[in-house]
Amino acid sequence: MPVVGTSQVRKDAEAKARGRARYVDDLVVPGMLHGCAVRCPSARRSIERVDPSAALARPGVHAVLVAAHIPGRNVVPLIFEDMPFLAEREARYHGEAVALVVADTDELARAAARDVVVEGQELPATTDFETAEDPSTPLVNSLGGSHNLIKRYAVRRGDVDAAIEGAAAVVTGEYRTGYQEHAYLEPQGMLAIPEPDGGMTIHGSMQCPFYVQKAVAVALAIPLHKVRVVVAVTGGGFGGKEDVPSLVAAHAALLAAHTGRPVKFILERGEDIIAMSKRHPSVIRMTHAADAEGRLLAVRAEYVVDAGAYSGISTVVLWRGTVHAAGPYVVPNVDIEGRAVATNRSSCGAFRGFGQPQVSFASESQMDRLAEELGIDPVEIRLRNALTEGAETATSHRLGGSVGLREALTRARERSDWFERRGAAAEGPGPDGMLRGVGVSCLYYGVGLGAGGAYLARAGAQVQVCLDGSVEVSVGTTDMGQGSETVLCQIAADALGVGYERVRMMPVDTSRVPDSGPTVASRSTILSGNAILDAAGKIRVRIHRVAAEALGVGLADLTWEDGVIAVRSDPSRKVTFVEAVGKCAKLRVPLTEQGFWAVPGTFFDEGTGVGDAYMVYTFVANVAEVAVDPATFQVRVERVTSVYDVKPVNPTLIEGQAQGGIVQGIGYALHENLIVRDGVVETADLATYVIPGTCETPEFVVDFTPAAYGNGPFGVKGMGETPILAIAPAITNALTHALGTRPMSIPVLPEHLMELAKRE
Ligand code: MTE
Ligand code: MOS
Prior knowledge:
Oligomer: single chain
Bound molecules: ligand MTE, dioxothiomolybdenum(VI) ion
Largest sheet: 7 strands, mixed
Radius of gyration: 27 Å
């Protein structure tokens, strides 16, 4: 029996359930000190002088560091090098680190941080991204070549104006989306341990150990091989631990290098909400044109995101959103422009979906409006336009295979009882007085970083078969809760033909595997999975050669499964995997291998917006059912049906991914409202920034219509982000169905709905 495709118990389940898993804050080493940051209290301030004397006068405070103390370069090594580890002459957003304090305890460090006097003035700030490009606003940066522009992307195809002219229906809308805070269970945290040879070892909570390694090397001015990064059990990331941990780790490392002692650096929740990255707020203007049958003729879109004070990875977020803005449809004419603009607000970053939830909210709203205008069923209009094998995406990428959108939509329609429930909802309030609505959405997600990050599109693995036949696997991508450790053990088990229990995933350690890029963009299953197949395949062949010899047959005559290697024509002739490994040991056959996989052929032309943007796309269809209280406008999402075109490696785990993503999408659509006034974050706790809890959890119907991906390990592709991406538009489409009026911005709070209903 293959292990891939079965619901094995998570490798980390028991340790986490019993409270034995060790997160970074559980790690204690002798001589350890505690660090924290002095942060900017407003949107923009000059830094004229930092006076640490009162802080240093406290017994137990070891040092206060400012930018001038940094031995290396004061810049986080990302795409554009604009973000400093510590602000120098001015701080540009609420929460930016200005100085670092290290003391015997965390409480003492925080008290001392309050004693550090930062002399400076409030400076005029740009806090509205929608007007930030106007030259009259204070300049934050002009990395993209004009006032407060960080980057512009375009995707163009055909002649949009001509297509609109001949269209039967044209709909135009302006949509807005708010911030979203990751609200991972575990705040950011790092432990830095100085090594006797001048090196630094980092343990911590992160998604991208190789980014952290590079950042620490830059900050300390030491070579990469002197920085070893070991990933601790990580309590959620959702993209929030992609670029940010580089900053946190550098802060810990600077203090550790300065004091010569280990330093733990853990953020408090409020500090984390204020100072760390978030999902980009956006405004999207879209025009969709279709013929009388609802076939899309053209999509014009302008997508503007608020990047915040530094560029971070906003370009990546913007690129993904721009490339996917036309939705998973055949659109002959497109004109999409995306812009990331700079403001004196939190530096926004990766969040599950990288700029796609924003555009999908707009484009899936537009699809429903077209359907309504033309009198076509919303599922039907999507089926008529769905990308299929051989069709071209907006970037003129001809899809070779693994395109399961039609099947997913059809299955979602069935499993959600679409027609019955839509019909029942349309009949007015139910016996409980609630108004009901049913809405659909669908989406495609390019797996991995795509052409924009092609240089990172590779991963390594190390597989070691121990002499007793147990197996150690190391990869460079991390498990932040999504379960990749389990999934990759399943892949390794099948690659070697052994049981799942025989395989163990080793802690991610930069000294063990080659740079494998970041753990983002749902890339781990394909990339680390293929690297494992590469390594395991080399070992398996060696073991099988020895087994074939012992059995007196050729390599091609063997089958392998469940720890038994047998002769295909006569399965009674066999050796166990363990016996074969024993023979290998005697023969001194090497049983450790490195594996590597690089994504083949993606490209993108920035001038024309044409390219095979991603290696493969994952498709999803959602149906949401909502109930609205007509008196209070409280919304309850009652049921969500989601169908993915992926083959599950572990059905239970993937269903967990779906459920978590759906609830996160409900939060994005209806509850999560980060209030930032004049650049100051006002909802800096989980009492005022409200995320959905169990009461907001709907009934889930999760299903799969697998479309095998030939280059994926055992035909699988990534799906970790897809569950959240198009939940908001399914909900707002359902709300529109229930109320007859359309929310044009999210989050949709009850007071917004009440306003909308009044206006009707
Ligand atoms: N699931 C849990 N439980 N916790 C997380 O932090 N992150 C999501 C998703 N699912 C996340 C999660 C994000 S943002 C990504 S990119 C993928 O998992 C990464 O996992 P993969 O590469 O293994 O698909
Ligand atoms: Mo996920 S936003 O790609 O870390």
